From TrEMBL:
Top-level taxon of the source organism: Archaea
Protein name as catalogued: Amidohydrolase family protein
Domain Amidohydrolase-related: 48-382
Entries under InterPro entries matching the protein: Amidohydro-rel, Metal-dep_hydrolase_composite, Metal_Hydrolase, Metallo-dep_Hydrolase, OTAase-like
Length: 384
């Protein structure tokens, strides 16, 4: 057993001065543990103990290069080595659980298993396998193309057979695919309904890449569990999401990475689309916050200049757009855990996984604190 002694706990319940006792990867006690017989005592006086961050939207095969489509020329082996490096970087930066929402072949599923088996250091992984996309749609070059409800059902079942933990689809076009119209609907309402129905029958959650307003509404009405991006969300879409408890994963980091590096080799068509989307993001946040849409953190890490180790920047962007520090903490912990269907992480309580960060400042007062963890514990093992 090991003891984190003298710190201040910060989670969705607020703050508490307490010790944290860890036994076999699990939190055994929260409170006064000064009399406990432990193997090691770690003094964290003056520091803040927070749950590890949960990044619900990443692409492990991507490395932040300016032209994401150039990954098409890489071998599966090259992408696997890259995924391993991304996983190491993410966990050392404080991401203790992550969800890959689209990779070639079975790369993300294999990465999940490699982490679980201890072959690769990284956060616990959920993997969606290949994205389900219309023929020629956004991300078609690493997705599973399908047209019509029957093909969509088969595509979903293929991902389930391969071991996918979630099903991801493209409900609209996107920024990084040449020729795709960012806001245009792609999968039809009937196709989206088939996707959700098939995944739900297997007890698997669903996510939809949605930029455009109509695509968001189509996905929500079909029963999707999370809207990824939601850039052109309007008031009606926000109210519909709130009514149906559909999570929003804004991935502000993706747009920031492109717009902030527009002269660094990113294809011109992607920059133009990202700037248009960025101009609408503030309105989406206004509608989302006013309606009370549930929000979970996701970065879209791997897209241009959006690195896996920079996940904490997403929380600062959320605060920049109007979410308070407590809301940002919830988005990265309890909300993200709820979206992923995890009941053993996201809080600092007895019986939870010891996925913990030791931060220099209180993240409820300074959101930047997430960016500089002094210690990171993954299921009780110190990895930083």
């Amino acid at each position: 057993m090991q003891l984190l002694e003298g710190g201040t706990i910060v989670d969705a319940d607020g703050t508490l001065d307490a010790d944290v006792l860890i036994d076999d990867g699990t939190i055994e006690l929260v409170g006064d543990a000064s009399d406990e017989n432990v193997d090691s005592r770690i003094d964290v006086s003056g520091r803040f103990i927070a749950p590890g961050m949960i990044d619900t939207h990443v692409h492990l095969m991507m490395d932040g290069r300016p032209d994401a489509e150039s990954v098409q020329g890489d071998s599966e082996a090259a992408m696997a080595f890259r995924a391993a490096e991304n996983l190491r970087n993410a966990v050392r930066a404080g991401v203790t659980t992550t969800r890959d929402l689209g990779a070639a072949a079975t790369l993300a599923i294999d990465a999940r298993d490699a982490v679980a088996d201890g072959q690769v250091l990284g956060p616990r992984v959920q993997a969606a396998g290949k994205n389900v996309v219309m023929t020629g749609g956004h991300g078609h070059w690493f997705g599973r193309e399908a047209d019509g409800p029957h093909e969509v059902r088969k595509a979903v079942r293929e991902q389930l057979k391969a071991g996918a933990d979630a099903i991801k689809c493209m409900a609209t076009g996107g920024v990084l695919t040449t020729g795709a119209q960012t806001g245009a609907p792609e999968l039809t309402p009937v196709e989206l309904e088939a996707l959700v129905e098939t995944a739900e029958a297997a007890g698997v959650r669903t996510a939809a890449h949605c930029h455009g307003t109509q695509g968001i509404k189509n996905a929500v009405l079909a029963g999707i569990d999370s809207v990824e991006h939601g850039t052109f969300m309007d008031e009606e879409a926000a109210e519909l999401m709130a009514e149906r408890d559909t999570y929003w994963v804004p991935t502000v980091s993706a747009l920031k990475g492109i717009v902030g590096n527009s002269d660094a080799g990113i294809p011109a068509q992607a920059v133009e689309k990202a700037k248009e989307a960025g101009d609408r993001m503030a309105a989406a946040w206004e509608y989302g916050l006013d309606a009370g849409v549930p929000i979970a953190m996701g970065t879209d890490a791997g897209t241009p200049f959006n690195y896996h180790e920079d996940a904490a920047h997403e929380l600062a962007y959320m605060v920049e757009y109007g979410l308070d520090e407590a809301g940002a903490l919830e988005a990265a912990t309890v909300n993200a855990a709820d979206l992923l269907g995890l009941d053993d992480t996201g809080m600092i309580e007895k019986g939870y996984r010891a996925d913990l960060l030791v931060l220099p400042e209180n993240p409820l007062e300074d959101v930047q604190a997430w960016q500089s963890p002094e210690q990171v514990y993954l299921a009780g093992e110190q990895v930083r």
